[in-house]
Amino acid sequence: MTIEASELAHLYPLDSLREETRAQLAAEAAVSEYVQGEVLFRTGDVDEDTFYLLDGEVEGRYADGRVRRFDAHSLQGRYPLGDAQPRRFSAVVATPSARVLRLERRYTEKVIAWDQLSRSENFRHFDPSPEGNRWVFRLLQSRAFHKLPTGNIERMFQSFEEIAVRAGQEVIREGEAGDYFYVIKEGAASVSKRLDGVETVVAYLVRGDCFGEDALLSNTPRNATVRMMQDGRLMRLGRQAFETVLKPPVVDWLAPGQAAVLARQGAVVVDVRLPAEHAQRSIKGSINIPLAVLREEAAERYDRRQKFIVYCNTGERSAAAAFILTRLGYTDVYALQGGLAGMLRQQERAGG
Q1: What is the pLDDT of residues 1-30, one digit of tens each?
Q2: In angstroms, rounded to a whole number, what is the distance separating the alpha carbons of residues 289 and 351?
Q3: Pair 64, 135 in one domain
Q4: In this structure, are 150 and 213 located in the same domain?
Q5: Is 254 helix (H, G, I), strand (E, B) or coil?
Q6: Does the reported pTM lie above 0.85?
Q7: What are phi and psi of 12, to 5 degrees?
Q8: One domain, residues 79 and 162
């Protein structure tokens, strides 16, 4: 069920947003009808959603027996429904029906932060033209940026440098050293790799897509060539800004002991080194998907709800691998801190 942006205009703090920002949130929102007695969430739940009650009434039932009534058409109906985490009460529909709006909390917070920050006189990257900021909303929607703290958003946008590019221009070239992380603001590009000696297009990029992070995360040469298909504009971050603003938040690291526990519980352990390295020495039970082909191999291969632990020799390649898998929609991805040696020592201690 869809919702018009105008319906968000009476909800707090969405009422303070630009119309284009509300329209973006409305496009991503989920609106559902519930019947009496259905539970929206329970006491103690930790979840990813913000709920707004649009029609009907809900009872908030606390663990100590207290009950609080929420009416969509009262003043309190303008505010998110019990948004504290963990949830402090169970929300149960109290009327024959209720209409409820659900927004993904992290994305909503980032979009609100962008809307507020871009109003500053010193903010350089707001575009007042129609669709001019679509690249921003798509970038913030990327799963890889879900982990980016809201406080880092201002630093990221203030660090961006905008550049013009021409159709046919190679922005990055396979085999060269990495220097920048890029986001497409306008235009489209192709991604190609040399496969069996022939340059082959493997993907296309459009407004809001990002590229160039693999080499920066792994400190290895570029693994693909990105060529503009039409004139456009790119936003870029230099290596230092990328490593300060983006790299630490977007990669979840696990110590060897923690990784060993998750592996015993069924997490998939992925060695992102080359096949020869894997054959020489590897973690027992791990599968080998080299970093260079990880994006293609993992696109449809595994259940995205599984837990994944990626590793290499030092952690450089696994940081890039974790970023790639997260962007592909895998929800629980961890990079092994300290690389292979630390995990093998942990396994030896556990076995001895």
Answers
A1: 789 999 999 999 999 999 999 999 999 999
A2: 26
A3: no
A4: yes
A5: strand
A6: no
A7: -100, 135
A8: no
